[in-house]
Amino acid sequence: MITAKAIWTDNERYIGEATSHHALVMDTATEKTASSPMELVLIALCGCTASDVVGILRKKREPFTSLEVSASGERASKEKYCSVSAMLEKTAKITSKIEYLEGAPS
After folding, report:
1. Sign, CA torsion 76/85/48/67
2. Cα–Cα–Cα angle for 7, 2, 68, nearest 5°?
3. What is the DSSP letter of 80?
4. 37-67: per-residue pLDDT in tens?
5. Is 9 within a domain?
6. Order of all β-strands in the sheet with 4-10
7. Buried residues in 34-48 as b, exposed as e (16+ CB within 10 A)
8. How many angstroms separate the CA atoms of 17 and 24, rounded?
């Protein structure tokens, strides 16, 4: 099982970390300083597809010197709630836990 978490840092920025313990920055502000969560979903789709294609090419012993996978998309709705969650819940069981501290950040 893979687990992941997002930790709010400041403004609209978050640090994301999963089971591998590698961290990345996400930004949901209008002027982004990092990729948004939906951009990361598309990047993950491209990475997963590229990995599958490389595996198939290697299995078939097909020579290649370059490979690029691209994807594009837009939010299906303009809802204020997480479109990533809405997309994933159709095909995966997602369990969430939200913890927060009351009061102003220090």
Report:
1. positive
2. 90
3. S
4. 888 988 888 898 999 999 999 999 999 899 9
5. yes
6. 4-10, 13-18, 23-27
7. bbebbeebeeeeeee
8. 7
Rg for the chain (alpha carbons), in Å? Answer: 17
User: In 10 A of CB 26, how many CB atoms?
Assistant: 20
Q: How many domains does the chain have?
A: 1
The whole domain housing 10 covers: 4-88
Is 103's pLDDT higher than 80? no
Length of the chain: 106
Q: Is the residue at 104 inside a domain?
A: no
- 43 occurs within a structural domain: yes
pTM value > 0.85: no
What is the residue type of 73? G
